[in-house]
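Lab notebook: predicted structure, single chain.

Context: the supervisor wants predicted structures on file for every construct in the current expression panel, including those that have not yet been purified. This is the next one on the list. No modifications to the sequence; it matches the entry in the shared construct table.
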Amino acid sequence: MRTATPTRATSSSRAALERIGHEIGRCRLCPRLVAWREEVARVRRRAYRAAEYWGRGVPGFGDPGASVALVGLAPGAHGANRTGRMFTGDGTGDFLYAALHRAGLASRPDAVSRDDGLRLARVFLTNACRCVPPGNRPAPDELARCAPFLDRELAALPGARVLVALGAIAWDAALAHLVRRGLQLPRPRPRFGHGAELRLAGGPALLGSYHPSRQNTNTGRLTPAMLDGVLARALALAG
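Prediction complete. Output recorded below exactly as produced.
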């Protein structure tokens, strides 16, 4: 297994991501999402009754020098909305970080809290929506308000040559991002699927993977081998 050693990144990339992260944490543009994330943080799950919930927008996390960026859907109610870090503290994150660790992209196979010492190498994690949505379904206008955060984070990752969309909503968000970058999509519009691949001249490659939610991993729709395959392909394309 390769060692997860973060790549060299410019100080401007680190500073830009830090600024964006602070803005995401303070954002209150979507009243429905703000009310829900704060209610979840106030009521809490019994297992985490004594925990202090983050209850804010969740910024991206990873290597500022990343060559691969993973785009997910939204923070988990009692995962990232509790811990304040992408895919941290729930079953979805356990599945994802185990795969990243097998690929040599994460320093440990699990993610517990923001201060657990986990480091990522060559990969950055972000979401289409930054606040936990009711029913895990952000509305179109909420996704539109979050889109500038996605654009700015990816712009701060000049070395990101591959995007991996985790699920159909993330796929659509990634396609919309590519269009905003001035790239022209083929017709018919590329459809999401596990292993779907889109390569455009002048922009990053886009790969699709089923989302590592428990609904997919517990039913076998997404297996460790399937996610390993997508990550291997992403690294091959990234060079």
